[in-house]
Each structure stands twice: as structure tokens, then as C-alpha cells.
Design brief:
It is a single chain. With 98 residues, this protein is an all-alpha fold. 83% of the residues lie in helices and 0% in strands. The protein has six helices and no strands. The chain is globular.
Length: 98
Amino acid sequence: MKKYQYKIIVICIIIILVLIIKHLGFEDYFSFNNIKRNINTFQSIVKENHMFSVLTYIVLYIIITSFSIPVATYLTIGGGFLFGTIQTALYVNIGATI
């Protein structure tokens, strides 16, 4: 019985988080249009803080893949814009295998 209670609690938490994100309008921040509008700003931040950006990207990728959050595709594409194709492939493989 406890096994099912745990699953129900996790599903309820996920539903609550999705509703909060929808209600507060956070999905606009993670859209492709917003990324496209602000790509120069993001690239300048990455250039200024390259090592911190790489480590943050890898840690974020680890968290997203470990919890099976279905935004890894968007994160991979966004990483391609920020770091380049070859570097992003390396960072994604590191983040996905740890």
C-alpha cells in the first residue's frame, strides 16, 4: 500500500508544479520564441562565465534526466545555440550518463 501512496504523492506534486507554472506564466520564459529573442544576451553571458555556464548546464541536465522531466530535448537544442554542436554533444553525454 505504501508503494502506491508514494506514487500518488509524486503525481500530485508534479500536477501541482505544472499548475503553478501555468498559473504564474513561467512557460513563456522557456519558449523557443523567447530564446530566439534573447540569444545574443545568453551567448554573451556564456562567454563571460564559460566554466560556470558549462557546469550549470551539466548539473541541470543531470537533474532533468534523473527525474525524467520531458524538457531534455529543449535543453539540448538550447545548449546547441549557446555552446555549439560539438561541445553540447559532449556536455549532454556527460550529463546524461552521470
